[in-house]
Design brief:
By secondary structure, the protein is of the alpha+beta class. Helices cover 23% and strands 39% of the residues. The longest helix is centred in the N-terminal third of the chain and has 18 residues, at 74-91.
Amino acid sequence: MMRDAFFDLADRLGDGLRGDEVLFCNLDGEDSEFVRLNKNRVRQAGSLHRRSLELSLIAAGRQVEGGCELSGSPEQDLALARDLLERLRERLPHVPEDPYLSYSTTPASSERTLGGRELPDAAEAVSELIAGAGDLDLVGIWASGDLLSGLASSIGHRHWHHSTSFNLDFSCFLESDKAIKAGYGGLEWDGARLAEKLEEVRRGLALMARPTRSIPPGRYRAYLAPEAVQELMDMLAWGGFGLKSHRTAQTPLLRLVEEECSLDPRVSIREEPGRGLVPAFTAEGFDKPERVDLIAGGHYGKCLVDSRSGKEYGVPANAVSEYPESIAFDAGEMPRAEVLDRLGTGLYIGNLWYLNYSDRNDCRITGMTRFGTFWVEKGEPVAPVQVMRFDDSVYHLLGDRLEALTMERELLLCADTYGGRSTASSLLPGILVGGIDLAL
């Protein structure tokens, strides 16, 4: 069993420590299946079995880090790890003391397993997708399997995290750049939910086939689907919730922090390690809380604090980094089935793209609408809208112009695979706003 093999490796490395040396061992691994699709056909399929070991050697206020890939052979891996440890030991006297070095000195242990129930293998799931998509021009990627994280230290930490999930990220094209983007991911497979997703795509493509409507710049009523809300959350995460950015007054939410303004009272945003796919511990041995209330009732709540900022400002660490990994936005009272009726006449925005801050001090964000944006009249979608640029402040979109949040929330898994499958996720509603400013 990988957990036992990892803990045994850490014990044997710990036996070779000298003097006041402290060693932290972190394991990151996956057993993943990947399938790439184009024109609703499998174009590439493969699997990845990876075990990455990261060592952090600490002594006399200094710290050095290094990593290696494990082979699965206990003796060979021990030799690799011992060689890495010796090289770290040689480097340690040559690095300066670290004033913000921080790690847990209290032994602790935990074990957590998520997902794996009713999850088909890649071939079965992709076959179901291809059959359901039929003649759609579908392009995308399927990723699924086990994600492993472990922590062991010479102090006595023993933590293990194992999750099994899937994520399907795809788009269906009508022609040129006319497309509908969709996704489906989670811990448990539901073929009926996939069928619903594909039906939504077909309805969107039917609308996309109508003549494109051009609308002049201005302010328009709008509904932002959860995928569009996620893009806004990703921008807020860029410095919005970290302790360091707050103490240095660089957060885009500074006016909210200083209570110059507030968001709508229905806006509550949390980091939820207890819900997500991320481990409940940090690489330095600190436990994460089940939840951190980032924004509560429209007012700023608590910050995300990594170990270094915690040491610098004397605040307990509660996160791996100061960027949300398992963000959740409270649901509202509007049923998804009533979205178009409640919107009336305005924009249905399925996705936002290429976002950036246009005025960080006012938390003003700009970006493009691109795919899946439609003009709605009297509760009926009538035409796709040409690509438009919006430029508006979160203080308006989630503040004085917010009209409703959907009762249903969408679980959105991050599709990033650079360096390994991401464990980040979002749980988000759609939002109805009285106005969003389109600049051009």
